[in-house]
Design brief:
Helices cover 87% and strands 0% of the residues. It is mostly helical. The two termini are 38 Å apart.
């Protein structure tokens, strides 16, 4: 059991490192493709549109959508944690809202 506990603890540490490495500075990771996409769309105004610029725009749109979704999920998780901390202080309100939420789901 001690070995399992140690392995889980090491896995937790490694997962934290990966999380920090991949998701640190998400706002910047959203802004960079957004700026590049705007620049690419400015060059599209030239006729005829080269195929490589169209392909680049598709890639940038996909990347922007991915990082925007990640950023949105991070903010959603942070808001729920904050709501749980604040809502727990008022037990009647907290449990009534949880009951409503459960019924809605």
């Amino acid at each position: 059991m001690k070995g399992v506990w140690r392995n889980l603890k090491m896995a937790r540490i490694e997962m934290k490192k990966i999380n920090q490495k991949e998701f640190m500075g998400v706002s910047e990771k959203v802004q960079a493709p957004r700026r590049e996409l705007i620049d690419t769309q400015r060059t599209i105004r030239v006729r005829p549109i080269p195929q490589d610029i169209i392909d680049e725009e598709k890639v940038l749109r996909t990347e922007l959508a991915k990082w925007s979704m990640i950023e949105e999920n991070i903010y959603k998780q942070k808001s729920r944690v904050q709501w749980l901390k604040l809502g727990d202080a008022n037990n009647a309100y907290f449990f009534a809202s949880m009951k409503g939420r459960k019924a809605q789901n």
